[in-house]
Design a protein that fits this description.
Blueprint (H helix, E strand, L loop, with lengths): L13 H13 L10 H20 L4 H9 L3 E7 L4 H16 L4 E7 L4 H4 L12 E6 L4 E5 L4 H12 L6 H15 L2 H12 L1
Parallel strand pairs: 1-2
Antiparallel strand pairs: 1-3, 3-4
Helix pairs in contact: 1-2, 2-4, 3-8, 6-7
Length: 197
Amino acid sequence: MANLFESVHTSYSYTAFMQLMEVLVAEGKTSGATQSESLIFFTKLNLQRMRRWEKTFHLDEKLEQKVKIVKPQIWWIITEAWCGDGAQTMPAMQKMAEASGGNISIKIIMRDENPGIMDKYLTNGTRSIPILASVDAQGNELFRWGPRPAPAQKIMMDWKADAAGRSYDDIEKILHTWYAQDKNETLQQEFLALLDS
């Protein structure tokens, strides 16, 4: 695992990723090989979601203190512009990194450009994103997180086990309503636990 991310050709800071999103939206495109109407639509929606989180997200005081004292680490985030769960969680991750005073730096990479890395982080055998891998200066993995907070993952897994007549669009609405109501509180508690371990 130590040298896993050395093979990455292109990574983005959070700011550079947002600029990429803006370019993609302006050009009516998305990231990755598949350019479908729905993925292009989600990319546009995700840019709005991320902008909204940037304005409304508040970092928990305990977590703010915790990130200031963690050892230096890089948070490698595997995602794509069309990924709704990434849009819901990455602004919070960026706020954590900003609060860390340089202890945490974020590098975002594209799933479809890095299949060898993605395949080391499968969720139940699938290439679910986003995945965050925290790595220290020596390249050792400290922890991993993803593709979504545990209650949101349960919503998705329950639906996959028994759709009960609900479409993917139905479950997307339920999932994103959960994110709106949770306000990334669960995500912060999960990161507090991960940074403690």
